[in-house]
Specification:
253 residues, globular, nine-stranded antiparallel beta sheet, single chain, alpha+beta, three-stranded antiparallel beta sheet, Jelly Rolls
Length: 253
């Protein structure tokens, strides 16, 4: 049975000034930030980093996303929801992911039930450390030090093949309908492209970068900017090609 009510102990972090957290100042100023892998790793507990290989291996066990309105079969995923706040990180009962068509005109407007993130992954030090880091980044910027958050975690694998690019954001340039978003690269295998594009709410491009190394991350203020990722294509069409990411969203509960 999946854990639903026990608070998960937060990692013990070193004493820190919130302003020193990676990407926080840029996120506050611009509404988005690219955080290089080395900076992201340095902000995580050692246990989170040491368990990363086992965490990443779980992407080989994702289920097919059968809700793709474009008919695509290039996306695999799992999903979990958490309550995050001063009392810690608590996994919620498994629930559907929902976005209105205002935010996802391709796949929105329906409840989408994805396979749950495995208990060992959801309870493990890597995911907990990442969620805790996101909380330490987003809560100060929200001006609500005791905020309670509805948090969703999504494991995504986008697969590409010869003549069939994989689409990380098939809905195109969009907002997620939340407050904050963290996207962390888990793996890239035999793919080119996959460039993250950031636009302001008037449609002007204000940033572009590629998550190229495991632990590279994008931080997004979903209220201020839109984002998209360009299609990924195989470098060698004869070999498997995919892009694995973890997406964590925060919305005031």
């Amino acid at each position: 049975m999946l854990p639903t009510s026990d608070a998960l102990a937060r990692p013990i972090a070193a004493t820190e000034d919130a302003a020193s957290l990676p990407g926080l100042q840029e996120l506050a100023a611009r509404g988005f930030a690219f955080v290089p892998a080395a900076s992201l790793r340095s902000a995580l507990p050692r246990a989170s980093v040491e368990a990363f290989d086992e965490f990443a291996a779980s992407w080989d066990r994702l289920g097919e996303d059968r809700y793709m309105a474009d008919g695509g079969r290039y996306r695999r995923r799992r999903h979990a929801a958490f309550a995050v706040g001063p009392s810690g990180i608590v996994r919620k009962p498994h629930q559907p992911h929902y976005q209105s068509r205002d935010y996802n005109p391709l796949n929105g407007g329906i409840e989408r039930w994805f396979e749950p993130i495995e208990a060992g992954v959801a309870d493990g030090p890597t995911l907990r450390g990442i969620v805790d880091l996101a909380d330490r980044l987003f809560t100060p910027l929200s001006g609500m030090p005791t905020a309670d958050w509805h948090v969703e975690a999504h494991q995504f694998r986008i697969e590409a093949a010869a003549g069939a690019a994989g689409l990380p954001t098939p809905e195109g340039l969009h907002r997620d309908g939340v407050d904050w978003v963290l996207v962390l690269l888990v793996a890239r295998a035999n793919v080119a492209e996959g460039v993250t594009k950031i636009h302001d709410l008037d449609g002007r491009e204000v940033g572009a970068f590629c998550l190229a190394e495991p632990f590279d991350a994008a931080l997004v203020d979903d209220r201020r900017v839109c984002h998209a990722v360009t299609p990924v294509v195989p470098i060698d069409p004869a070999l498997p090609a995919y892009r694995d990411v973890l997406v964590v969203t925060f919305k005031v509960a």
